[in-house]
Amino acid sequence: MTSVEESPVTAASLLAAVGLRVTFPGRRGASAARAVDGVDLDIGSGEIVALVGESGCGKTSLARTLLGLVEPAAGRVTFGGAPLSYGSRALKAYRRRVQLVLQDPSGSLNPRHTVYEAVAEGLRIHGYGGDERAAVAEALSRAGLRPPERFFLRYPHELSGGQRQRVVIAGALVLEPELIVADEPVASLDASVRGEILALLLRLRDELGLSALVVTHDLGLAWNIADRVAVMYLGRIVETGPVEDVLTAPRHPYTRALLSVLPESAGPPVVLTGEPPDPSRIPAGCRFHARCQILASGEAETTGVADRCRTEDLPVLPGSGPAAVACHWAAAQVLGA
Asked: What is the pTM of this model?
């Protein structure tokens, strides 16, 4: 694996990405697609971080790499300060400590397995030597399915969407992980149930000290659940920081556009032109410049950064710390203040 320049990982970091790059082969001889193109990201103990962006921005590839499902082309993943090893035994031990919660509980659960079997599966894979029934009951109870024994012999089709998602969460909790990666955890649920699942994740953080990376396209969800937010576009994090700082005073034009479509947004929605560029042909300069409303309006020209937006790349943002943004125009705004 390619070596990377050392990047500081804070002492409180539980899971961290340092200089992470993930590529996939191009079609018919095309250049490799750079799904993750230089990312630093830290998740602290007991912290919830929201990874936000449009479909195709690389957030799922980043999450899969943090889970050890994809080996990076460059950079490294560390857990508890130790680099992640990709041997089968090491990965099995790692995945007991870091669990995945998928967005579609119907697709995550085997329709032929009872709730008990679904939750106990992880225990059996990892050779759990304790009281299986008690562990399954406790996990279901923590996930809000009480009394747990009432759900043991039920099948997924007998449950509501919210209950199925709680079963998926229980299946992750039964192994007593330190961190969960939740990929769009409420996207498939009715609005009335979403708040309950988000409240459950917050309660698990408070009661168990559980950390979480929540992957979502919804900045409103990030506002309701996250301590920090990382906004991703075309393989890179373009804005990051405490959720209050980023979402109340967004500095990157892309973050502003994402926020503008929320129902509670004060101004008119920003309609971005076109689609995100092909990750095998990332443009020069700021990778957002072809769709940037600030550049299109002439404001970047007035500020004197238009040429830099089109030609000058931006540095990788730090994985933790105060709010940071990768934007020539935002940097010029600060200097001119």
From this structure: 0.93
